[in-house]
Structures are given as C-alpha cells and as structure tokens.
Write a structure and sequence with these properties.
4% strand, mainly alpha, two-stranded antiparallel sheet
Length: 219
C-alpha cells in the first residue's frame, strides 16, 4: 500500500510537546508585551518636556501643513525674534529659526517615522495642535508616551524571541526582563519620542527579520 507512513506514537508525542512549547512561548510574548506597555505608560516620569518637545507637533505640521516648519503653530511664550539659527540658544533651545522658518532643532527622523501613528491618534481626537492652531503640550505628551511605550514593548518581545533561539523560556524571560526594565529602555527610551527612537524602531525591524531567518534555519 503506497502513501506516506503514518506517524508513530513517539512522533505524535514529540509533536504535542513542540506545539505546547510554542503555545506557552506565545502566551509569554503576549503577557510580556501587555506588561511592558502598561508599566511604560503608567510610569510617572516623563521626558517630553525636554529635548523631544515639539517632535509630535512637527509630525502634525507635516501632515496638515506639508512642512516641518512650525510657523503656523501658536506656541505660548514663543518670540520668534529671539530664536537663533544655532542650537541650544536662549531659553527655548528645542527650536531654531532658519531663513525665517521655525524648525525643531533636533533631527526629524522620529517625527517622520511617527507619521502613520500620529495620523491615527489625530483621527481618534488626540492632537498636539488644537483646531485653532495653538500648541497643546498635553496632547503631545499623550502621543509621545503611547508611541514610545508601544515601540519599547515590541522591542521587549523581540528580545525574548531572540533569546529563545538559544535558551529555554524561563531563562529567556529572565534576560528579557533585565534588558527591558534594568536599562535605559525603561528609564529613557520609553519615556518620550527621542530623536534616536527611530534607531530603536529600525532595530526592532532588523531584529524581527533576524529572528525569522534564524528560526527558519533551525527548524
């Protein structure tokens, strides 16, 4: 009688345990992602009032005004005449004036990468720029905290998946918790939309491809 041989009892048992381990790992990933998101979001310390301030306003200006310049945004206490073309000048070091344009002093990479997420938040009624064109720091803070927490929670899952290539679930979780909550990921990267957060986003994408390729080779 031709055809593929039916799996033996031992093969069925091994297949059951492999599927069980995969299911357990998936549950750990979901729990890790949710835990990281919640911890990052509710942590009281935020950095949005420092260097990252106005980065979301830049994203919204690109979406609404098709320019990163913030001239059309009414920023309380801002006197454009006091801005310089040099960074770290005066009280509002986050903004510079170049050829009459008010620009965010730091690289715009994170603001550009955040455009899809900012568009979703705007559609939900959350914005860093009010309908009258005035700047809303509370909206900026909420968007920054949400996006930073989301990205760093994904990075935590990537850490776990990468560790799982060589370690059991338990030790992978230990290393992931240490890397996530014992480093600047919690104290800095998850606190606001820093200019180097784009680098972390690229790291997440690259690590995901790395994990997928390694998993395929080990399968």
């Amino acid at each position: 009688m031709s055809g593929r041989p039916s799996p033996s009892a031992s093969d069925r048992v091994m297949g059951f345990f492999r599927s069980s381990r995969a299911l357990d790992a998936s549950r750990v990933e979901v729990a890790l992602f949710l835990l990281s998101c919640i911890v990052f979001f509710i942590s009281p310390v935020n950095r949005a009032e420092s260097d990252p301030m106005y980065s979301i306003a830049v994203s919204e200006s690109i979406l609404k005004n098709h320019t990163p310049a913030l001239n059309q945004v009414s920023i309380p206490g801002l006197d454009i005449a006091t801005l310089s073309s040099r960074d770290y000048y005066g009280g509002n070091y986050r903004l510079s004036r170049i050829n009459g344009k008010v620009l965010y002093s730091y690289p715009h990479g994170s603001s550009i990468l955040s455009l899809p997420f900012v568009a979703l938040m705007n559609a939900a009624g959350i914005s860093a720029i009010r309908s009258d064109g005035s700047y809303d720091f509370r909206g900026e803070l909420l968007i920054q905290k949400t996006l930073a927490a989301f990205l760093m929670a994904i990075l935590a899952v990537v850490f776990f998946r990468t560790a799982r290539l060589m370690l059991p679930i338990s030790w992978s979780l230990v290393l992931t918790m240490g890397s996530t909550f014992g480093t600047q990921i919690w104290s800095t990267a998850s606190r606001a939309l820093w200019s180097h957060l784009g680098k972390y986003s690229c790291l997440v994408v690259w690590s995901s491809f790395f994990y997928a390729s390694k998993k395929t080779r080990l399968a």
